[in-house]
Amino acid sequence: MRINIKKNSNVAFYIQIKNQIKDMIYSRQTPKNYVLPSERDLAKKLDVNRSTIVRAYQELKAEGLIASDIGRGTYVIYNNAAVENTKPRNFVKSLFWHEMYSESSKKNYDDIISKIMNIDGNNRIISFAGGIPAPELFPREEFEKIQIELLKSKVENIFSHSPVTGDKLLKKEIKHLMLNRGVRIPTKEVMVTSGSQQGIDLIVRTFINVNDVILIEEPTFFGAIQLFESLGAKVVGVPTDEYGVRIDILEYLINKLNPKFIYTIPNFQNPTGVSMSIERRYELIGISKKYSIPIIEDDPYGELRYDGRQLPPLKALDKHNYVLYLSTFSKVISLGLRVGWIIAPEGVINKLSMLKQLTDLHVNTLSQHIICEFLKQGYYEKHLERIRKQYLLKRDIMTNELKRNFEGFKFENPKGGFYIWGKLPNRVDLNTLFKKSIKNGVDFVPGNFFYKNNEKNDNFIRLNFTYPKKDEIIIGIKRLMDSFDEIKSISND
């Protein structure tokens, strides 16, 4: 029995051995009752550990191909002839897809985003988990009017292709929108993306090599962490406080690690809800300039301020093109439209477009035209005013219910955004609370997901107040408190 192991292959030795023996069995080189070499003999012959042969044989046994008996050894039990008589002549053996996955895809990332996206509005669960706008606040009448107008006058355009970097008229409207945020740019420095998540993906795939260091706020958006790590980057967390990222620790890590990028969410940060102070913003821009390290600024929540004065994005303070700016309409208008944008130097936009054309060619044309008209006809500002008022009410309902009913839960009242970030008493087991809460019909996101490798568990949780209805917030917090009381009483027994 001849087995050849490729020492430089990415396929594990035991899988190579198992597959070759399997092929011999299927091809009748080793018929039924054929006695295989002992584990020790085969390991010596192939110059591998005996445990490698043991594992290969175990998998072949699990698939019903071989068996072992004391005194007889390991032998083939697969009946080739019987199967040959019953299977069609064009029989093709099963393909083992799991053995073909790339190394990066073999990493087991938690499917927390998929679970949140699977939220069913008719489900009994009241969800505080997702970063999702309120469905009841969708501008239904405005969108209905816009679509009717588009179908009457521009039907050829809205179902046609679009430039890779985005529809020119939409880019012009985004340019005007950015002026309101204090950023003056030409349309050639704008790229339309399928939400800001695609923007992060394009930037990382264009710039990041394996083992490049990216400094992130800690905690931060889990989707960004997973994306960075999936491409082989080394993610290093920088602690934050009530004013944003700690600049002193950031500078220390820059000197120590020589990072490729700094990733930040300065406005109503996900998950903490903290807005970086204006002083920190200037300091961060200064650090970026001093060490020539670019910044990825993720700004999905910047226009959702409910208290205090509006602060400029980092891009508005950036005089030397060190900031790559990302934003989206997903949090303000609709998650389903999947329209966001990148602001970057023209040369960077051109490079990003080369990668984008290999993935999705361009963002959905109809969505781009609808958003463009929504902006052009003045609906956007009116919609912003409306949702700010409603989200403020929802935030206040949730914070009041938490203060009234959830003793021991510590949190800061966010001045904008989507989330309340709070800390449970240390005596509470977070996993137990999460399971009990799901059983009682309410969910949330445990805080460990917002740290690299889910490695930190300090009993923080993130609660979203924009998605559930007002009455659901009251019921949901009651269910959460009941869950807390139930596990507390069990631990006291």
Automatic annotation (TrEMBL):
Gene3D superfamilies: Aspartate Aminotransferase, domain 1, Type I PLP-dependent aspartate aminotransferase-like (Major domain), Winged helix-like DNA-binding domain superfamily/Winged helix DNA-binding domain. It comes from the Bacteria. CDD domains: AAT_like (cd00609), WHTH_GntR (cd07377). Transmembrane segments: none annotated. Residues 11-79 form the HTH gntR-type domain. The keyword Transferase applies. One of its GO terms (molecular function) is transaminase activity. InterPro entries: Aminotransferase_I/II_large, HTH_trans_reg/aminotransferase, PyrdxlP-dep_Trfase, PyrdxlP-dep_Trfase_major, PyrdxlP-dep_Trfase_small, Tscrpt_reg_HTH_GntR, WH-like_DNA-bd_sf, WH_DNA-bd_sf. Its cofactor is pyridoxal 5'-phosphate. Keywords: Aminotransferase, DNA-binding, Pyridoxal phosphate, Transcription, Transcription regulation, Transferase. Belongs to the class-I pyridoxal-phosphate-dependent aminotransferase family. Homodimer. This is DNA-binding transcriptional MocR family regulator.
